[in-house]
Structures are given as structure tokens and as C-alpha cells.
TrEMBL record:
<dbReference type="GO" id="GO:0006241">
    <property type="term" value="P:CTP biosynthetic process"/>
</dbReference>
<dbReference type="Pfam" id="PF00334">
    <property type="entry name" value="NDK"/>
</dbReference>
<feature type="binding site">
    <location>
        <position position="88"/>
    </location>
    <ligand>
        <name>ATP</name>
    </ligand>
</feature>
<dbReference type="InterPro" id="IPR034907">
    <property type="entry name" value="NDK-like_dom"/>
</dbReference>
<dbReference type="InterPro" id="IPR023005">
    <property type="entry name" value="Nucleoside_diP_kinase_AS"/>
</dbReference>
<keyword id="KW-0808">Transferase</keyword>
<feature type="binding site">
    <location>
        <position position="60"/>
    </location>
    <ligand>
        <name>ATP</name>
    </ligand>
</feature>
<dbReference type="GO" id="GO:0006228">
    <property type="term" value="P:UTP biosynthetic process"/>
</dbReference>
<keyword id="KW-0067">ATP-binding</keyword>
<protein>
    <recommendedName>
        <fullName>Nucleoside diphosphate kinase</fullName>
        <ecNumber>2.7.4.6</ecNumber>
    </recommendedName>
</protein>
<dbReference type="InterPro" id="IPR036850">
    <property type="entry name" value="NDK-like_dom_sf"/>
</dbReference>
<feature type="binding site">
    <location>
        <position position="12"/>
    </location>
    <ligand>
        <name>ATP</name>
    </ligand>
</feature>
<keyword id="KW-0547">Nucleotide-binding</keyword>
<keyword id="KW-0418">Kinase</keyword>
<feature type="binding site">
    <location>
        <position position="94"/>
    </location>
    <ligand>
        <name>ATP</name>
    </ligand>
</feature>
<feature type="binding site">
    <location>
        <position position="105"/>
    </location>
    <ligand>
        <name>ATP</name>
    </ligand>
</feature>
<dbReference type="InterPro" id="IPR001564">
    <property type="entry name" value="Nucleoside_diP_kinase"/>
</dbReference>
Amino acid sequence: MSTTERTFIAIKPDGVQRGLVGDIIARFEKRGFKLVALKLVKPDQKQLETHYEDLAKKPFYAGLVKYMGSGPIVAMVWEGLQAVKTGRVMLGATNPLDSVPGTIRGDLCIQTGRNICHGSDSVESAKKEIALWFKDEELINWDDHSAAWIY
Ligand code: RTP
């Protein structure tokens, strides 16, 4: 498949605290995406500053870094056909009130500053984010036998 991509998806501290980890993982599994990496991480300040460097001048930046560093996050890599774009569609709009029902944010949250999940916004950022959050050896290559029924 030429359009197979990998995307970085994170369940933010509020998603972990609210017990939404299983629900969010299940949505990616059920859609047919392949899990390539998964870990619970307590992000450090430096990692968050790098992850959000494009937003450094935004008024909400300091609050965002504080929120993201306030507890463990679940960091994941999912692979599949147009995984980056489809992952963003599954997450819903940044502001949960603009997210349609059926999306993760549209079903599970209300506020932009507590929007429970992150997804890479382009293939290029996915590559950078995967390299920031995972070591090469944490990305697992495995034969997904369900793929023949999905594609
Ligand atoms: P994400 O990176 O989390 O997938 O979100 P995104 O691309 O949809 O949105 P982006 O503009 O990159 O913002 C990153 C995260 O910053 C928080 N935010 N707070 N208070 C605010 O106005 C505000 N705006 C953005 C959200 O947690 C957003 O997901």
C-alpha cells in the first residue's frame, strides 16, 4: 500500500485520569489500524516544549505545557491507510464543541483546553513526533493477519 502512514496519537492527562484509555485505543483497533508502539509516559518539560514549539507564541502555550505535564499520557503509533488524516478525523475538531458526535472529542469532552487526545497533523509532523516520543526499538514490526480482511 503506497499510502500507508504512521501517525502519533497521544491520550492526554485528562483522558488518562478520566479512564478513557481503553475506549480511545478500541476505536483505532476497531477501525482497522495497526498498533506499532504504545507506552505510558510522564512527559518532561523539555519534551513538551519541543512537541509544542510551533505554538510557543500562543497565549495558551504555558497553560498547555502545564496541563500536558500534569500527569501521565499514553503515547501511541498507529499505522494504516492515510492514518494521519483519518486519525485527525477520528479525533474531531480541536474545540470539542465543534467536533461531531462519533468522534473522540465529539463524544467524550467539552473544552479545547481539556480535549483528551492529540493526533499528528501531517505526515511530516508524525515523523518528527514519533522520533521525539519513541526510540527506534520501541516501534514494533509485526505481521498483522487481519490486514488481508481490511485491505
Ligand atoms: P493537537 O495538537 O492536540 O492534536 O491539537 P490541534 O492540532 O487540533 O490544535 P493546536 O492548535 O495544535 O493546539 C494544540 C493543543 O493546544 C490546546 N489549545 N488550547 N485555550 C486555547 O485556546 C487552546 N487552543 C489550543 C489544545 O489542547 C490543542 O489540542
